[in-house]
Design a protein that fits this description.
- The chain has a single domain, classed as Aldolase class I (TIM Barrel).
- It is built from ten helices and eight strands.
- It has an eight-stranded parallel β-barrel, surrounded by seven helices.
- Helix 6 links the parallel strand 5 and strand 6.
- The structure holds ribulose-5-phosphate and magnesium ion.
- The site of ribulose-5-phosphate has 16 residues, from strand 8 and helix 9.
- Magnesium ion binds next to loops.
Length: 216
Amino acid sequence: MRPRLQVALDSTDLATAFGPLNKVADIVDVIEVGTILIISEGLRAVREIRALYPSATILADVRIAEAGALIARQCFEAGASWVSCVAGASLTTIEQVVKVASEFNAEVQVELGEHYSRETSASWRLVGVQHVIVHRSRDAEVAGILAWGPHDLDRVAELAEMGFTVTVTGGITASDLDVFVGSPVGVVIAGRTIVGADNPRRAALELRSAIERIWP
Ligand code: 5RP
Ligand code: MG
């Protein structure tokens, strides 16, 4: 199946996020209210984007580590369709997030950290987590770790085999996507590549056509 395209909005204010969002909302499949935007603006960002795009799939990238039920409920009440948890959250926390998500017909993502464990990932799937995120971190980018490599592809394949929808993210550009040929990626996230472009709509269209070329 062809991956969905998700735009990540990580600006520090909502007004700035709306500029590119309004230009690409009809091109993308998922709108991410990014961690940085939620920290800056709170869940008002989710509420306002939901009000403008009532039928969109919206991820609140809140990276839950603790207090899972409480945080997840607030996100879903604000209009999120998906929430994210960090891999370091306990299984109890993740299970509570999944339980609240099921009340809202919503879904849960876990973002992998540096220390990947097949067993831990399998335990998330067992408690009902639908998505995992294979993430090249901004901090790794700053440290000069730039390329997606064979280990990422192996991880994507293994996680998809377990039944997860696998998201890839971290400074992705249209040309980066060639490395994923034949890989069972479920969602491609692009933040800065779209939001930071002179022409966000053209950047989103380029990503979409790269996706269509790579996953025909
Ligand atoms: C950073 C994030 C970003 O939302 C994600 O990496 C997508 O943004 P970009 O394409 O700019 O890296 O969660 O931690
Ligand atoms: Mg994010």
